[in-house]
Amino acid sequence: MAALQTNQVILPTDVSFAVVGKAHDTSTIATLSPADRLGFLDDKYNVFNGKARAEVVAEGAKKGGYEQPIIPKEGKRFTVQCTTRVSKQLQWADEDDQLQILDAIQADQAAALGEALDYVVYRAVNPASGSLLDGYTPLSGDATQVTAVDDALANLDALTDQLLKYNINGVALSRTFANTLRKLRVSVTGSRLFPEIPLSLNAGTLDGIPASTSITVEGEYATDPTGVLAFMGDFTTIRWRLARPITAEVIPYGDPDNTGVDLAGSNQVAYRFEAVFSYAILDPKALAVLKTANTRSRSVKAVK
Q1: How far does CA 168 lie from the centroid of its chain?
Q2: Distance separating alpha carbons of residues 85 and 99, to the nearest angstrom
Q3: What is the pTM of this model?
């Protein structure tokens, strides 16, 4: 029988990336804009502004030049942690049982890290408390604003109308809006207008573009509802990655999550996962956000 380690362990780089890879299960950002696999480097993104133009050169003519300015975009860091209490009997389990239990805990905590990414980037909210984070700017406020009407198809058209200068390569749907779109039917045949949205609402595409659905879009955990129904646009403008290796720790004593209950006194141990993310939004206007008119969560009527 293997004994659980009580010291903090820094996960290897490939393991850290594998854990982050699981974030797409709960994060629309991780699904539509996968993490940069740059290693743990300095938090600055040097990007081009994309205004270069090709020149047609006649035979024997001189070639012109173009100076491309480099605009550094500094990444914004945030630290996330998950602390899960389990019965101390885990220490008595056989090695195979221990690994299965710890794998389940790790998967659950990786999903929570994915949720945190959406909450921080989309609305600068701490998912644990639902409160706003000081010093962070929500994408839901900086993106191009679109006010929802009672016509679901008109809402999609309004989003694309605001993105004619950008490459639309993704749409993040709230479950409310995904459910509305799922119910739309062709009047003549009765077939679904968007058959790619299943009953589970976990759409892989929407009208030919990659799609992802999650409660993180509407921000269920946020104290103040924002009424967000969808984000659409160029999701490559959201750049994110691990800034430090993920650490894992088994804590046998004390009150690590400030619940007022001592671990030893309640015959428990705590398993803690901690990660440091860095993200940068290169151009917020490359994304458009659809919100309800009164900025409160409500359903938008389907178009028959």
Answers
A1: 17
A2: 16
A3: 0.81
